[in-house]
Amino acid sequence: MKKFKADPKFTISDEQSLRSLFGATHDLAVRKCQASLDAHAQAFIRRSPFICIGTQNAEGKADVSPRGDPVGFVRVLDQHTLAIPDRPGNNRLDSLVNILANPSVGLLFIIPGFDDTLRVNGRASLINDPEILESMSVQDLIPKLAIVVEVNEVFLHCAKAFRRSHLWNPDHFQDRGEMPSLVKIILDQTTGAPSDDEEMRKLDDDLEEDYRKTLY
C-alpha cells in the first residue's frame, strides 16, 4: 500500500481557516463547560463502568487507554477531585509514565446503553494512600496505586457519535470470530504465530486462563 501524503493545498493549518468551514458555536455548547463536578456529573460517574484516559508524554506523544471495573469504580473524592484505581495490566505503564512527565489528562466516561458521554479534563497525579486504595479493593485485592485527577473542565458530550455508530444496537454487533484472536494477531506482528491449529487454540485458552487468574 502506497504511503499517503496530504496535498499542502488541502491542509488546514491555522484556526481561522478551520473555523471558516463551520458555523458559529451554539451558546449552550460554550456555556455547558463546568469547572467542577455538579450533582449530574457525579451521578454519571457513579454509574459508569468504563472510561478512556488520554495522556501525553513530555514530547507530546499521545496515548489513550481503556479502564474498566464494576459500576462506580471511579471515586468522587470531592467536587474537584476524582480517583481511578490502577488494576493489573501488561506493565507497560504507558499512561502512568506519561502522567509523571505531563499531568494533563482527558477522561471519557461511558455508560452501557447511554448514547451521551461525560468528558472530564484535568491534572493527574499518582498516589498510594492506603486509605484510598483500600476503599477501591475488589475481591479483597487492593490496587497498587490510584490516579487522582484534579478536575478543571467537565461537560456532557452529545449522542451523535454513538447514534451514528449504532454502538449499543445488537443488530450492528460484529462477529469477533471473523478476525483472528488477540494472541494470533500479536504473534503475527512479532515472532510469528504457529501454523498448527491445536497449538494456536492452546495459546488462546492460556490467555483466557490468564484473564481469569489476573483480572485483579
Description:
- This protein has 2 domains: 24-165, Pnp Oxidase, Chain A; 174-214, no CATH class.
- 14% of the residues are buried.
- By secondary structure, the chain is of the alpha+beta class.
- It is globular, with a radius of gyration of 21 Å.
- The chain has 8 helices and 7 strands.
- A 7-stranded antiparallel sheet has the order 2-1-5-6-7-4-3, covered by helices on one side.
- The model has no long low-confidence stretch (mean pLDDT 96).
Number of strands: 7
Assembly type of the chains comes to: single chain
* Total domain count: 2
Give the CATH architecture of the largest domain. Answer: Roll
Q: Helices and strands, in N-to-C order?
A: HHHEEEEHEEHEHHH
InterPro entries: Pyridox_Oxase_FMN-dep, Pyridox_Oxase_N, Split_barrel_FMN-bd
Domain Pyridoxamine 5'-phosphate oxidase N-terminal: 38-158
Protein name: Pyridoxamine 5'-phosphate oxidase N-terminal domain-containing protein
Organism: Roseibium marinum
Strand and helix layout:
Layout: H1 15-19, H2 27-31, H3 39-47, E1 50-56, E2 62-68, E3 75-78, E4 81-85, H4 94-101, E5 104-110, E6 117-127, H5 130-134, E7 146-157, H6 160-165, H7 182-189, H8 197-214
Antiparallel strand pairs: 1-2, 1-5, 3-4, 4-7, 5-6, 6-7
